[in-house]
Structure formats: C-alpha cells, structure tokens
Amino acid sequence: MSIAVLNQVYTEARRLAIAGSNLAVGDFRLKKLVEPLEKSAQKAPVFGVVAKAIDKLVAGAEKESAQALLDLSSLVLAILYTQGQTSVEGQPQPIRSKELSLSTTQVPARLIKPLIEALTSTGSGRMETIKEGFERGAFDDIRLVNPAVKALDDTYSEIADFVTDNILPKYGKTIVPEIKDKIDIKGRAGNVRRLRLLHQLEPSLARSIVLDAFENGSKEMKIAALGCLGDSPADLPHLLEQAESKSKDVRRVALGRLGNFNEDDCIKLIIKALNGADRELVTASIRQSQSKPSGKQSSRRRNASLKSYSSLRIKPNSIRHSSVLISYWLATNNEQTKSAWHSSPPCTTVAMNSRS
Amino acid sequence: MIEIDLSFVESAAINSAALANGRGLIVKGKFVALKHSDDKTVIFGECKGSGASNYQCSCDFVEPSKPVYRCTCPSRQFPCKHSIGLMLAWVDGKKFSVAAIPEDLQAKREKIEKRVEKKKVEVDKPVKVNKSALAKKIKAQLEGLDLLEQLTLDLARTGMGNTSAKTAKQIEEQAKQLGNAFLPGAQAALYNYTKLFASEDGHVEGEINSQKRERIYSQALDQLTRLNALVKQGRKYLQARLEDPELKPETESAIAAWLGHAWQLRELREAGLVQTDVELIQLAFNSYDDIARRELVDTGVWMNLGDGKIYLTQNYRPYQALKFVKGEDSFFKVAKIPELCIYPGELNRRVRWDGMTFRAVEPGDLKAIRQHAASEFAPLIKDIKTHLKSPLADRHPVVAINFAKISQIGNETLVVEDKKGERIVFTETGLAEEPASCHLLWLLPKEMFQNQTLIARFHHDIDAGSLRVKPLSIVTESQVFRLTL
Fold it and tell me: Is the ipTM of this complex over 0.90?
C-alpha cells in the first residue's frame, strides 16, 4: 500500500517535471499525498522524509521550485530503485528451442560486427566482406543466423543469392519456420529465394506452397515454382507443357527439371531441343539424367536414344554442338561420343577446357 | 622466445585495413630480407616501399608483455603495415635467417631499459604538485559546476515537455563550456540528457515525435536527478580539495571520474589501487559508436579468476584519432596481467593495464567462474537494489549467476531460476548500444538451459517498477558462449 503511494508521488513528480517546476507550487495532487505518507512514516521514517520534501516543494517559492522538485524526484527514485519486481506470475515451461546445430560463438567481434552490418545494411564492399567471412568459417556462429536470413531480401542480388546458395543451407531445417512464414507468392526476388531454399531444405513441406505459387503466383514466383517441380510424377505434364513455352527462361527451367524423368516423351523433347536452338538449355538435364539412379530398362532406353543422336552427329562442327556432346560424354563416358568429337578440331579445344 | 600466433597479430593491428595491408605486402613480395636474432627475441627485416630506399622494420619481443614495433617508414601507426607484414610472415612460417641485432636497435633497447630504470626510481619520488595551478583549476571546476547547476535548474523549471530540439542544441552549446572548465565528465552527463531528445542518428536537429517523447521522460528525469547529484557531490568534493591542496583525487567513490578526471596509471598506483599478477577472463564484449561523445568505445566485461570480481575495460577512440588508437577485439584467452590498475568505484570497477601476456583457457578456469558466481538470487538482488539506490550509481551492473534452469512463460517471456525457485525475468533492454541477445536463446541447444552460469546485466524499468536482466553470455563447462558481440 505504501509503495503505491510512492509510485503516485513519482508519477506526480514526473508530470510536473514535464510541465515545468513552477507549476508544482501549490499542486493539489501532490498535497493530497502528504497525509498518507505521514501516516506510513510511523512504520518507516523514510516516508516522513518524502512528505517533508513534498511540503518544501508545494509550499515553497517559485524560484526554489526547480531545486525542490529535483530533490523530491531524487529521493523518490532512490526508494523506488529498491522496489523493483523481479519475478512474474505463471507456470514456467521448457523452452521450445529450435536447437540449431551450431553451438559456438568464438568468432571475434572484429569479424562479426562488419559481417552483421554487411548483411543488414546497404552500400558497397559488402560482398567481399561476406565472402571473406564465409571462407573463414564465421557463419558457424549462431549470432549470424538472423542477419543471414534477413539478407534474403538484400537489394544487391549477388549477395542475396550467395547467402541463399552457400550460407543458409548450413543452418538446415531450423530456419524453415522463419522462411515459410514469410513467403509471399505474389512477391519477387526475396520470395523467389525463400521458395527455392524451402524446397531445398524441406521439399515435402514446400510442396503445397510450390503448387500454389505455380498456379497463382507472380511471374517470377511461377518460374521459381516450376524449378521446384519434378519430384513427383504428377509434375510431368506441367513440365512437358512448360517446356514448349514461348519464354526462354521458362523453357530452361522446365527442360532442366525434365532430367528427373526417363519417359519417352521427355527424351523426345530433349532430343528436339538438342536439334533446335535450345541445345544449351538441356545440358544440365542430360547430365542430371545420367547421374540419377533409375531402372535398368529405362536407362537403357534413354542411353539408346541419346546414342542415336550422337551417332548422327559424328562430325560436329560448331562449338555449341560440342558442348552438349561433351557434357554427355562427361556424364556417360561414352566411347562413341568421345571418338565423335575427337575427330573435330573445335571440339577438341572445348573438350580440353571442360576436362579440367 | 617469440610466441605469437595469428590471433595475436590480428589483435595487434589497429584495424582490419592495417592487417589487410600487411598481408598485401607479403603477397606482393615486398619483403627483401627476413631475419631474427639469435635468441629469437626480435624479428627484423627490410621491406620495399614507395620511397627511394627500403624500410627497415622490426618487432622486438624482449619484453613479451610489451612488444615494441619500429619502422623507418613515415607512417605514425604502431604497428605499421610493415611490422604487421613481418609478424604475419613469421606466423606463416616463412624463412627467417639468423642475424646479429642491428646496432641502432640495440641502442634503442638500452635506451628503453634506462628509461624503465629511471621510472622505477621516479615512482618512489613523490610527484611535485604545482599548488597554485591546481587551486586555479579547482576554482574553474567549481565555476563549471555552478554553470551545470544553473542549466539543470533551468531544465527543471521549463519542463521536459518544453525541451525542444532547439533548446537541446542550445544546451549542448553551453555544455562545451563545461569541457573548458575541466569537467568533461559533467559535460558527458549533460550530453546524455540532450541526446535523449535527439533523433535516431544522434543529432538534435529534428524534432522527435510525441510517442518517443513519452517513452524518454522517465529516463530524462532520472538523468536530471543525476545531474543534480553531480552538482552537489561534486561541489562538496572540490571544496574539500580546495581547502586541502595536498589532498589526492578521491578514491573512495568514483566522483573524480564522474567530474571527468582521467586517471593516470601512476596515480592509481600511488593510491594503492593495484593488484599484482591477476588473471582475467573476458565474459562479454561490445564495440559501439557513442555519437554524443564523438568516440568509438570498446568495452569488455571481465572476471578476475582469483576473487571473482567483475571488471570493465573501456577503450575510447575519438573520431579524429581512429587511425592511431587501436581498436580492441573480443579476447578468447586468459589475460595474465602483472599489474592491474583498478579505478575507484563500486560493483563493476573499471580497470586498465599496461602490459600483459596470455594463456589458453582451461576447464579449470570455467569451473572457477562457476564457483565465483552467485548461487542464490535473493541476496544478490538485495545487493543490486542497495547499489542502485545511489543517484550516481551505474544503473546497469553486470553479474555472474549460477542458474538451475531457463524456461519460458507463455509464448514470449523468458525467465531464469535458481535452485530455490527464485525467478528473474529476461529483458532485451539494457544499454542502448548493446546488441539484442534474448532472441538467440530460442536457438540454443537444451543443455544451455540447465545448470549453467549466466552473465547478465540488470535493468530497472522505472515505469514498470520491474528489475530484469539482459543475458550477455552463458558460461558452460566448455566455453563462454557469447550472446552479444
């Protein structure tokens, strides 16, 4: 009860300090508090001291009011500082920790501080700082997790992409809730990266968002969603459709993802692309299809189709043809293809470059 | 014997640019000669520079706790990039040939030895004080306090609500006079008041909105009472010194520092405020920009492994001197200090030293931290409240406490409990310049929440009437897990 009175004294003193000490003289709200204070003084003399201080203020002259108000405030504050409540009501529960696997914070301030600034602000020179920090293993430090996630939306896309591809995957599934909650399917750059990352970390969780973005998202999000399709056979019709899209970007992504499949339709499309202007777009797809484990029968079929293509192109003349065949050779180590481009000078150069 | 590693070189460098330049010298192959002395106490060499002749640089470790860097280049930085490059070459394991110590280096060594000897003799001799100059200074300080009193009373009279950006600027102008009156501490205290009325970037140019105003009034009133106390206690202290010119700066309380006295190590030694052969371990670190003081500040929180006291180091780097004053960094080893000077004050006293060596942290050190930390919250909280009572006290003391568990209440509130079930709630508010740390607690492995030692900073919220803690680090059996910087 008595502490409540002191809190009231503080509130009034604060009010008067805001308004100006001249108004404190004769202030009736303060005057009213003198009586309860004097009563409490019987139990604790300090209340009597406070009462006297109030008297001095309200009954004093205006030119003394500033000093008197400061003295009263000092007195009341000194007492209130001893009355702080530390506890709180409620039943404590174990912390629902996300338990990041990194558990070290031994990176020195000189390295971390510029990194945090580089990740959360704008300006030049940040990419070098971040790259250097990454090379020195600074991102193993838990204090950089949140700034790194923020960098998904960095205005400089190189930084945002670098963080998305190299740094954030390290943190694993722990950051999934953080990313998932913030995806906007109508969004652009940052959201595209979030979707890509989510798909990388937790493909099953990402599925519904991917489909939603593919149907209803903005242009950039649709392409990003397309890049996440291909994990399930149900996606094949979508991919086949988009592989014939007018936009090169869309075709690139679709053809890239078709590498996951071995169906005849896919092979036909890939060969068609090889024959046409889209041959560079299918390189990754071919490589991926070779490295993907698949049934023996389907892989034989695939190899047969691609072999037939390469036999048609025994003497490739252009560098572009060569690069496709080289990637096929690298993926399959196919002797026939090897002999094919050995015979053609432009191919040899390209081959030497790619062999390293 | 030179025992330096990469982290030593990194911490010796003034800033990262110097380090990068030193590294660049090696990469570009600018070092023409790399040598070391027979007893391996000094490394020296020749480096190509932009001048006509090569630069001769050296790093002398004859006194391991006080390495000396010398170079003939015109840079005034110590260590210059050539010395840093030399040390980096040593750490990298490059080929250094044995050679005799050059004559001039030897001569300089002897000069230092003579100077150290002279200092030792001088220390015994009492320093002569110019009494009339001191009396003049104290009078100027007393006048400064009169000015401070007048400013403070004016602020109280006009009212905080009527303190606009314009009036705050005017006050800052007047505060400059306090600096002239040998009262930099009082000046800083006044800036601490005016900066509350400043906008985000620290300038009192634009007006702050009414929401922000409402939040700062309690803090502003607290600051006014501090200024009031500074005037009263400062006046009493200075009068006493005026009456007795023999009187040394006071050591019982920190009033001298609050007024702005910059303690010299010699003065602290004379006053007996030293401890010898101390081992300190750093518990937390922060580096921030104090816009009001126009300085960068590096502060460390350390524990004395011997008696468990928590000390603070403060390294002030004025904007104009950033190139020359070394920025500090987090320190992950145990500092072995032959002579630790301790400033007057209470609870977390400021310390400074001149010369140290280091060793790796051992499990025994982490155990020592736990043994020194308070195990029961109730008596600790009582001590903290008693400390906070004093108007000029440090409002945000740091403590080490052993806890039984850290848990959550509801979705947002985090509490720490001791083995008796006494609780303290966490808060993110502490010192304005300290990075947020509570949010990291949600990412930690579960072991961190049971039976560890917490390094925490107390914060009393005047409006809410609550006393809370902000976590700075958690000390486990294997490491000091830092949450700030």
Answer: no
